[in-house]
Every structure is written in C-alpha cells, then in structure tokens.
C-alpha cells in the first residue's frame, strides 16, 4: 500500500506531531525535536517492495533519536539504507558518526540507538530502503562496523545501488506484486554487494539454493501472517517440501523454530498496531485477528509472555 504524507495539508502547530506519527508507523519510532516547530515542513512517500519498503523523505531542520525506550516500544529488526539526495545530515550509531552530503549512502540498524540531525540551513531529502536484517547474508558484527559510516553513492558499485533507490523513489517504475518481490531481492543483493565491497570481501556471499528457499519461505510468512491457518504444514505444502525439510532449513538459517518465528512476527506487528494512534478505533481483539490470532485470550497470553505487560496496558502506555 502506497503511503503519502504532506505537511502542507496540516495546520502548522500540528505538523511535527503528525511527522512523529507517520515516521513511527512507516519506519520506526524515534524521538523527534525541531528548533522551530511551526516552521517545520515535510513530505513522505512509502512504497512496499515485497517484505521491504522504499521511502522518499524531505524535511526541514530536526533532530531524531532512536533511544532504548523507542527500541523497547517497537523494533521491526530492520536494516535501513539511506541515500542522501539533498542537504547535509549528521548521523551517529555504534560509536561512529558521519556528516553526509548529496550522493552519500549510509546504513543503520533499527535495533541499536542512533541519532540523525539536519541543520537549520538546509532542507534535507533522502531515500530509505528498509528490509529484515535476516535477509542480509553478511555477519551482523561486520555490518555493525559499517553503520553510520559515509559510503560513496556517486561512483563505483555504490552508484548502482544509489541509482536503483533513486529510480524506485521517483515513482516511475510500475510493477505487479511479483515484480515487487523480485525487486526486493535485487535491492538486498545490491546492498550486500556494496557492503561486501567495503568490508574488502571480493566475493559477496552467494545464496545457495537452500538459502534462496529459506528467504522465499521467510517472505511467504511475512505475506501471510494474517492467516490464522499459517503453520509449518501449510508453509511446507505451499513450497512443495516436507515439513521435516522445512524444519531442517530453519535449523540451518534461523535462531528459532518456524512456529516461534511466526508467533514472534505476529506479535511484533500487533505491538506496532497497538502503539499506532491512527488505529485507536480498532479493538484489541480486532488487531489480534488482523495478525492471525482468532482467539483474544490466546493473543493476550502470548503478548504478555513476550512483552511482560498485557495488551491493554501496552496500548495505554504507548
């Protein structure tokens, strides 16, 4: 679903709060401050790309911080790759910091605190690609070393990724759902190639047939979390493999079982919806059904076990 936000349609005194809400829902919750709230202006356009998303943003001076509090509130476990298209932005994460200008690329991790700043003398424009961290076939420790590091996007292999992101953000590419899934793979592959290059790995890790199947299965799960009948058996049938082989693939590539992954991702999505003020009209039971929990009592127990608080208390505090 295409998401579009334009602050020009909102009263000046409400724009900053509206920006906090739309970026929390489309990207990840952050604490956002602005030197002149009533002079603030911004635009956002988010386009799904399979299980990934490409978001084009433009905004005036602000400071955004993703603190441990925001991470506890919601962590989609994404890598986010940014392309700076205008203005200058400062970014910091993992004890690293960089001043980014037009054409620069940068990666950051939604599970770790970070800070981004745009000064008052420029309007910033950027494109952000986000995707599940498990989709990137590079060691997390190595990727952490590249977070908040300026990577050139105007030359070499970085130019391929930057051109792809800019083209998708400009909205000139019309595609079907199947096209989007293929483009998601291309986006992750290009990101892998860029990061591997900067990690001085001449040969980016190629996906084996087993890992390719694993990534397809993970994408299938993301697309069907709403289905209460989603289970290892239905997943195996959809991919024409045995349930035993499915479990073996997850043992090789995933830290938890198939059922555990489904439950965690459903609860992550439900937690995000409970914290979204735009969904305040939905009951907790409706949100539970939306993410594959037909029985509210089962949802409440599972949610309490994962977060430590009942769904109603979590919604009230968020």
From TrEMBL:
The keyword Transcription applies. It holds the Pfam family HTH_18. Residues 215-317 form the HTH araC/xylS-type domain. GO terms for molecular function: DNA-binding transcription factor activity; sequence-specific DNA binding. Keywords: DNA-binding, Transcription, Transcription regulation. This is AraC-like DNA-binding protein. It comes from Catenuloplanes atrovinosus.
